[in-house]
Amino acid sequence: MTALLEIRDLKAEIAGKQILNGYDLTVKAGEVHAIMGPNGSGKSTLSYVLSGRPGYKITEGQALLAGADLSQMSVDERAAAGLFLAFQYPLEVPGVATMTFLRAALNAQRKKRGEEEMSSPDLIKRVKELAKILDMDMEMLRRPVNVGFSGGEKKRAETLQMMLLEPKLCILDETDSGLDIDALKVVSNGVNQLRSKDRGIVVITHYQRLLDYITPDVVHVQSAGRIVRTGGKELALELEETGYARYQSEAA
Amino acid sequence: MAAVQETVEQVRRVGADQYKYGFVTDIESDLAPKGLSEEIVRFISAKKNEPEWMLEWRLEAYRRWLTMTEPKWARVDYPAIDYQDLYYYAAPKSKAGPKSLDEVDPELLRTYEKLGIPLHEREILAGVERPEGEERPRVAVDAVFDSVSVATTFKEELKKVGVIFCPISEALREHPELVRKYLGTVVPASDNYFATLNSAVFSDGSFVYIPPGVRCPMELSTYFRINEKNTGQFERTLIIADKGSYVSYLEGCTAPKRDENQLHAAVVELVTLDDAEIKYSTVQNWYPGDENGKGGIYNFVTKRGDCRGANSKISWTQVETGSAITWKYPSCVLRGDNSRGEFYSIAISNGRQQVDSGTKMIHLGKGTTSRIISKGISAGRSSNAYRGLVSAHRKAEGARNFTNCDSLLIGGACSAHTIPYIEAKNPSCMFEHEATTSKISEDVLFYCMQRGLSQEDATALVVNGFVRDVLQQLPMEFAVEAQKLISVSLEGSVG
Ligand SMILES: Nc1ncnc2c1ncn2[C@@H]1O[C@H](COP(=O)(O)OP(=O)(O)OP(=O)(O)O)[C@@H](O)[C@H]1O
Ligand SMILES: [Mg+2]
Which residues form the ABC transporter domain (chain A) (predicted)? Predict the structure, then answer.
């Protein structure tokens, strides 16, 4: 069976500076992978390269989503194909009500896949259910996208978008940062509801406490633009003890 | 960079092809001979069976115009206009003055239908879908085709509450005392080059009178259409809201695609007496010319409202997407104590369009207040300038103004300018001014596209967010139309 995400010897640069140095990663449907690694090791860069952010250039290697070469797809095509990125720093869209944004995004994806659009009443109903799971006030969804949201509220809103869009591959870039203890539980619960045999989830995080709630199948350590060690969930616990010092010297 | 580059490409492809109102109606016209002279002024006046005083008024304006020169201070650039090479009067041939809609030339009815303006009294203008059972708001329409009004709907029903809504040519015959009392009192015949020209040769337009204490029971609107080649359109609109009355009025306009430029020099005068309010909205969609700047309408318009009475209010809302060149400053003279003026504007320029637009708020009375919200969006190789004046007279004790001008740039080949003038002759007044200029954020576009929106949809969404404060000022039906129009004027096929 083809893997959901297959990254082979990927090299990528931004502004002429090489950040990913021969990256290999395979995520199968049904799996949850955690990526950990020191600041500046290129974790967010990986997420941007996969989602096609302008300025990020693949110089060598390949990234395939369900067998399709991501580098041949536009940003919105990748999204419609099921790639979702929960941003480390979600952007604000002034003047655009969150509800309007959700409707536009969902229906744009459905249209690209040749599916029928979701009607407004159905959409509102669905969003209400999700808001309840994530303990969010509907009033917030009438406000412009992320404008004036607190750090934690932005992360909840990202999770809500992800749950509504039901992507095949979810990449969560430090979704736990900025969340208080209760919010961490609520958001993790939302993410766990997305766990399914058809879906792959990649969580980028610095902390074990997130993995206490979202138990990963595989844990990777990333350093200087590539994966330097892979293990089971106990690897995260080990990192908590030892830190990254040995990997940094290894990679250098 | 890549995303913005693509947007630029898209915007570049936009132009003539995107203008869906560019068709020509094949209809026989009555044309006055080309050129401008006393003869032509007399001809127009005679065609309309005007009273003698009106002809005199026109002739005086014409003589005055001969002594004036075209203004050159705006940030717009165009070849000299040959005023002798234009037609000043064009009217679709028909049996003199249709009495009812059944008598209107079917070709004309089809034209308005194609424009989305059905001239039936049971329908509304904009094609907004509503849940079943919910009543559609009704809108009375005056349709002006080249130099004449071809149909006005709901006249009878409006008459019942004393509202007069008719072509100005008809008002001159049926209500001469009202027209004479107010015409030229807001924009004098000598006001400026284009207004003076309009005073001499104006052909038609709408007249509205709302009697004291009446809240007009429906939206009133006028749709202007230029069809004939080489024809100037000089319409004149006069709206009077008597004491304690209220009216919401909307103006829309389109023209066929033609390689030649066409001149549109309108005058709009608004008067509010004590406690009255006029809300005037415009969705301006004249043909903007093709991507190389060939053809398009020169829109040189004088719009002014006079808050003559105490506690009265005039609010201008405009969505400007069309025209090759726009020169337009809807203004408020705040004469009555505690009167209020508002100006909400969205001006979009694309291709080679040039916009120089803004407003004037002239505070004369005590406690007068005004608010200006301007959103300029430039794309392609266009230029977009906001020019505004806020002034307070010595007697304007406690006058206040708040101005906010934001400009959004799409791509690197366009430009935006903000030119505010402030004159406060009374030390107690408070004028606040905020201005920003920004480029459409590539990061925000990426964020939207990561959620599945195409480049066009993402751009349209961001732009719609940018203009939201102003869109909210439009009557609901027109806000939806305007939103679509904004997408179309910026993108390829976004609808
Ligand atoms: N536009 C850019 N130009 C040059 N270097 C950049 C640019 N953007 C990112 N970088 C560099 O790329 C490297 C990887 O950054 P990245 O954000 O991917 O790290 P990260 O692993 O996500 O770190 P963190 O844990 O702090 O989120 C950093 O050294 C960063 O400075
Ligand atoms: Mg990061």
Answer: 5-249
- Cα B208 to Cα A86: distance, rounded to the nearest angstrom: 55
Q: How many domains is chain A partitioned into structurally?
A: 1
Range of the domain at A220: 3-251
> Which whole number is the average pLDDT over B14-33?
62
Q: What is the pLDDT of residue A247?
A: 78
Closest Cα of chain A to B306: distance in Å?
Answer: 32
Interface of A with B in 209-248 (CB under 8 A): none
Task: Using an 8 Å CB-CB cutoff, list chain A residues near B455.
Answer: 74, 76
ipTM score: 0.96
Angle of CA points B86, B88, B94, to nearest 5°: 120
Name the band, by pLDDT with cuts 50, 70 and 90, for residue B146: low
Burial status of residue B118 (CB atoms within 10 A of its CB: 0-12, 13-18, 19 or more)? middle
pTM comes to 0.82
Helix boundaries (H) for B151-298: 155-160, 168-174, 176-182, 193-201
- List, for residues B178-197, the tens digit of each pLDDT value: 999 999 999 999 999 999 99
Ligand 1 pocket, residue A39 CB under 6 Å: yes
Per-residue pLDDT of B455-468, as tens digits, reads 888 988 998 899 88
Q: Three-state SS for B233?
A: strand
| CATH number reported for the structural domain that contains residue A13 in this entry | 3.40.50.300
CA distances from B156 to B104, B162, B163 (A): 17, 10, 9
Question: Which of A44, A175, A227, A244 is the pocket-test mutation for ligand 1 (most atoms within 8 Å of CB)?
Answer: A44
Asked if B449 and A79 come within 8 Å (Cβ–Cβ), the reply is yes
pLDDT for residue B174: 93
Pocket test for ligand 1, best of A10, A13, A14 (most atoms within 8 A of CB): A14
Average pLDDT, chain B: 82
Torsion of CA A147, A149, A152, A155, to 10 degrees: -30
- Please work out whether the CB of residue A98 comes within 6 Å of at least one atom of ligand 1: no
What is the CB neighbour count within 10 angstroms for residue A243? 10
Distance A88 CA to ligand 2 centre (A): 6
CA-based end-to-end distance of chain A: 36
For residue B461, give the nearest of A76, A91, A96 by CB distance.
A96
What gap in Å lies between CA B196 and CA B81, rounded to an integer? Answer: 16
Residue B74 pLDDT > 70: yes
